[in-house]
Amino acid sequence: MTNWSPTVFTRVMLGVAVLLSAFPLYWMLVIASRTNADAVAVPPPFLPGGNLGENIVAVLNNEDAKFLLGLTNSFVVASIVTVSVVIISTLAGFSFANLAFKGKNVLLLLVLLTMAVPLQQMGVVPLYRLMVSMEWTGTLKAVILPYLLNGFGVFLMTQYTRQAVPMELVEAARVDGAATLRIWWNVVLPAVRPGMAVLGINTFMLMWNDFMWPLIVLTPDNPTVQIAITSLNARFSTNYTLIFAGTALSIIPLIAVFVVFGRQIVGGLMEGAVKA
Amino acid sequence: MSLDTLPRTARTPRRDHPPGRRWRSRVDVKAMPYVLVSPYFLLFAAFGLFPLAFTLYYSLYDYDLAGTTEWTGLGNYAALLVDEDFWNAVVNTVGMFVLATVPQMLLALFLANALNKRFRLRLAIRMSVLLPLVTSVVAVAVVFTQLFARDWGLVNYILSWFGVDATNWRAERIPSWLAIATMVDWRWTGYNAIIFLAGMQTIPRDLYEAAAIDGASRRRQFWQITLPMLRPTMIFVVLNSTIGGLTLFSEPTTFYNGNVDGGSQGQFQTVAMFIVKQGFREFDYGYAAAAAWLLFLLILIGALVNFLVVRRIGGTK
């Protein structure tokens, strides 16, 4: 069974992979904690400096950047979308996995098809015109609404419910006289919680990172965090410490989520991949 | 299935059913499945079907800045097919896609193979290769843009040790593609490795044991067992990368400070950036909509080609 113990080459390769994965983040910290003169020095600085707090305060206090508003907006958008997508997907997943109804397979196929279409890029013109005619451009509504449609979520929860909730359990609850919604609440929800967690984390990260659609539909006055970084970048293009302090702030929530839920994220990704 | 005819279990409270109870439970069983899936399909109608249909509609009209619209039939499509800027965007998109995806797939495969061994800190190492995925795209693109800066960027500094002259990564086509492909690969290689790893773990171990007994080397086992058995996972990964790669937007846009021109000569403007530029900088909605349909066509072609390529990979004799 020597096959399963790593060779020296494998160990080195893993080490390099870990280093390369972490390096840009380390670099972000190095520049964010330096002065502007250091950021453009040759040779570049390799160790963090002592100005991190100062630079972060500068970004947060910068009137033009609206960075704090960006962080808040992203948090609001990502939270609302995450909660809605998880609920919508869990309901539909239960229906597809455990209930019998006519046209089920056709509808499920439709869900799969929507997963394959990059709707965000494809439908961008009508979606924008829709937001204009409703006078929603520049508001968070315009960012939130299109993302409530998430075929991946329905697919994931269907697969997860199939495996986590045996049909006998649902039938038994029915015999006991429980109505469908009650079964969902008392039998299905407790069983599919891990799947909901994976979907929730996934959706939150996706929304936090979203860029193209907010860039089109929002203005720099009311940005998400990614738009706030972009305006920083455009307006203060040589003020690296300011920009980097902003990018560091923008990934702190994601790193926090990752540290807390890392095990579930790895597990969820691996499980999802095998089932797909 | 009527509730009343079924034997009562101990858990069922004995109580008289009010009139209409049976009818209500029938409605519940028949209708609830549809009610439960309806939120998704209502959203699908509003934000999926409607935009798709109207993209087609818009693409048949000519819009100009003054706000007048005029029916042009397939005029937008005809104009796109002879538009040098559009073809430039197509070439850039496909070029960066190939430049990013080929090394990424190979690296991810070998990384997955390494991650599949037994070693200490396994979860920690798996998590750290996923770290790039959970950092925000724009933040990362900003960092890489600084790393690739001409005068003080770390990349040029390191290259100078080997006597390479400072490259202006943003100014020229191939260097800009390389810089952007690096950003894409940094982000996705670890993710794809984890997906490949999941696929590898479904391969029965006795296959390897049998091969080892027959004297097959590790390398041979990788090529003759791992790769062919991994084909379904590979199809998933490649299709995913095709959709993501051909709709590339965030990295190249951030590389040019949030501008969708893609460089002074459009040397790294992708099709997605072209669509945003036409639709939302020049307000030529019809043209942008037609370009969106052509992008969709490009993705279909890309997915088909990749699917055929992957089917051949590992098709061992």
TrEMBL record, chain A:
It is found in: Cell membrane. Keywords: Cell membrane, Membrane, Transmembrane, Transmembrane helix, Transport. Residues 71-261 form the ABC transmembrane type-1 domain. The keyword Ribosomal protein does not apply. It is a multi-pass membrane protein. SUPFAM superfamilies: MetI-like. Pfam families: BPD_transp_1. It comes from the Bacteria. The chain crosses the membrane at residues 12-32, 75-94, 106-124, 144-162, 183-208, 240-261. One of its GO terms (cellular component) is plasma membrane. GO terms for biological process: transmembrane transport. Belongs to the binding-protein-dependent transport system permease family. This is Cellobiose transport system permease protein. It comes from Nonomuraea maritima.
UniProtKB/TrEMBL annotation, chain B:
The chain crosses the membrane at residues 31-58, 94-115, 127-149, 188-208, 229-249, 287-310. It is found in: Cell membrane. One of its GO terms (biological process) is transmembrane transport. CDD domains: TM_PBP2. It comes from the Bacteria. The lineage of its organism: Bacteria, Bacillati, Actinomycetota, Actinomycetes, Streptosporangiales. Residues 90-306 form the ABC transmembrane type-1 domain. This is Cellobiose transport system permease protein.
